[in-house]
């Protein structure tokens, strides 16, 4: 961040406070004057200028400090959507955005905020997906599967497919663009769990019936994912679709 940008943030922060009941930025009555109003306008102008120049991290911070939380969350969601599925391939950008988004999430959690509810839902979903992909990359499969099931983005049984397809049609594009990676990661974890069941040495204490039931359970999960991928109004990349189908076939 440039010195000028940092100075503007400091200046407006000294004239603006957050209401204890609202995350939306508001002016301190004791300090409100024409100068503070001008500073706020100047910060928002600088935010727009930073956005136009592609300096999105600066723009997000300036929009938030200047009181335009709607634009700050939209821009953060757009930025997150491009990096969440690649924990080890983006360099330092993803960790920075993740940290910045985490700070924003803490500031808005539990408050009524000056942003559209759908904007907030998209943002919080993307933050959760960032954690999901981190857990997947770290091979923390139990935690990752619990997260993605809690998100309700994809089905985990055949009976859920129709409902999730209908829900998909209402999702923001910044979420739907990551669905192929979500499906691949989830299927990979289900398949890894299935392969463990094929190795008797890793299953101490499980009866044959229990193993059979777990296999059937995982097979249905896999079938629900391939059924979902073929039903949503979205073009799943051919290589991803082939891998999904192949993993399901390998479980039979």
From TrEMBL:
It is found in: Nucleus, Nuclear pore complex. One of its GO terms (cellular component) is nuclear pore. InterPro entries: Nucleoporin_int_Nup93/Nic96. One of its GO terms (molecular function) is structural constituent of nuclear pore. Keywords: Membrane, mRNA transport, Nuclear pore complex, Nucleus, Protein transport, Translocation, Transport. Its main location: nucleus. One of its GO terms (biological process) is poly(A)+ mRNA export from nucleus. Belongs to the nucleoporin interacting component (NIC) family. This is Nuclear pore protein. The lineage of its organism: Eukaryota, Metazoa, Ecdysozoa, Arthropoda, Hexapoda.
